[in-house]
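Dear colleagues,

As part of the handover before I leave the project, I'm documenting each prediction I ran so the next person doesn't have to rerun anything. This entry is a single chain, and its sequence is reproduced below.
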Amino acid sequence: MPVIQTECRNFLNGIIIFIITIVIGFCPNVYGLDQLTENVYSKNSQQGISYEYCYALKDGKIWIKPNESTTGIKGEWKLFDSTGAPYGKDVPSFKPDDRIVGFSTDGTMIVAVSNNGRFYFWQPTLQEKTTWDEEIGSPFSDSLYLPKNKLWSFSFSILRAPWKRLTPMHDIVTYWEDIDGNKTQFGLTATIYVVDPAGQKIYFTDTGLPATFNRAFTSPGRGTFIIENMSSAASTVFVINEAGKMYTRMIDAEIEGGGPALMFTYKRGKRTKADEIVPIMDAMRSLPLPDWREQEPIAEVRDDRIKQVVITKNITILQTGEGNAARELRVQGRSRAGKYGYYFKKIFDPSWNFKITNEYFNNKIIVKNYLKEARKGRKLDKAYTGNLEQIFAPSLKIELIDFYYFSSPATLRVHVKNKQFDMKFHTVDQWNMAAQEKGHPELVGNPAGEPKLLQGTLEIPEPVLNSPDPAIKETVDRYFKRFHLAAFAFQVIADDKKVFIQSKIIQRASLSYMDYEFRRRITMDLVNTDTNSIVIPDLAFTAMAKSSGLEVPKDWQSMTKKDIPEIEKLLKLNKNVLWEMRILNLEGKFEHIKIGLTALVGAGIYYAFDGIINLIGLPSYPPLTSDPYINEELSEFGGLSYTGGDPLLDNAWLNFMLAFKDPLDYKKAEEIIEQRITLLKSLYRRLSKKPNRVIPA
């Protein structure tokens, strides 16, 4: 009898769910934001939630109300900051007719995008009155535009530091733990994450970097996982694919390893006491950064055979306190009892619970075939072959396997006397002063754009380091042993076609007075011979050249004398576009020269400054004052000395190199137009029947 009752109840629940689904299908406003909802439970580009507030986007403006569920404060929806949109003298680019088309929140900071694709920032941590801002970046601020994307999200990690900033938010993450459990304070890291159109990688930037999206990391499976949705909070990213498989990862510019003045090591170990949280400028952080963590399946959905229990692609992550574990994950869905709401758990908890919200959703966003095989993205890793050179030593044949400049580690394979051995090659971003491929992050690492600048670290496995094979042992000792786990001992310049790796001759080993290490240099020059793995997109110049208004008619062979005016018009248009392209190309070259000179001047200033630091031994001085602001500034001086000037010199060299070569996209476009002009000239002469006639300019 109980079994029959259960089956009847399930049948009735199914009927009710079917009716609700039909109603929702014909009434899209039930789940949309054409009308402001009573409560907000999830974050996306149209709504947001923090401990303090609920946010929503309506009619191109941001609305706000107290979050009653956490604060107990009741309130009605009202326009954010009285206008609901950027305004004032600090945002002259936001015109009266402009509107907000998407926004993202974490804590009480808001990042919004206008209909023109430009970002605007509300950062309530400044000592002065908070206003909207239209520029970010360091050391030079600039506008930031949303690149081609599938979706984007924002996260905010901060430490309470009343001597230099306000923190008007309840949930403060304060610190993060590295792979060995060492706790390090956050500074202020406001990060924008952008999923590329293919869903295979996530570009990111923050307010302390140049205003560009030239940094990225791949989705789970080194980019083969196709992201369907993403949410972020406190430097932690939460993603889901079409089959409902979910992963999280904690990563930003401050903890990834590529930040200036910060110290990192690949020599693993717990260096801090149990509850000790080390100041940001004093901490030695363990690398590598942990990879993606697969989140536990939702058992109620996985075990449901009648497909009554479902989840949607609407996911949310919220920061809930201090440290890596203080995150709550939410997945919108429908329970076994037919109730609408969301599944939730803490990020490291093994199982999910369900909360009823009665927030209905459209069947279009339901995850079908839960945990079944999902589509996979194209392979991003590549293999390169080449030679290693060291002065006064024979060259070695080497391979760089499974390398991708937005993923780490790769395998460095060395061939010696018909034998081979493998080592790990870790990479992190290299800091630079200027934006790289601003507005076109897909060109970073592409042969049609600019190479990616990285820092590399070699890790030699124990069996290789102490190999019993004489040939391998001699090779390791002669070429590689001195670089084992030496953090960022290599400078890397990489794209899909070539990788150039060069070791640093001199490198600061610690903040101790005059503590430097000298290593004999090795260089590695490698090439990707698999041309099928290199994708050269049609970009700005090619798009100009392929404009339909410039093309020769397909029936040009049947053109007659009466078509000469049209040919003259096409000739003029093509010549004008070619001239315009050449001017734009020159402007790009001058921009590279300007960036290169800026980096070179910066390097000169750095080395003069570093010389003074080394003379007075500032990095090793104890705190000179009780003022935390001054102590932090002094620590930054030591940190900059530790980082070294190589990033500035590398950036200068790269930009000077780019200034004296034409982009592949430009060469391709120039060839298209020149061939078209040649054809038009030939056609003009044939139709005019005067071979020596002057062709109009």
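The chain has three domains: 31-365, 382-533, 540-688. The first strand starts at residue 47 and ends at 49.

All the best with the project,
I.
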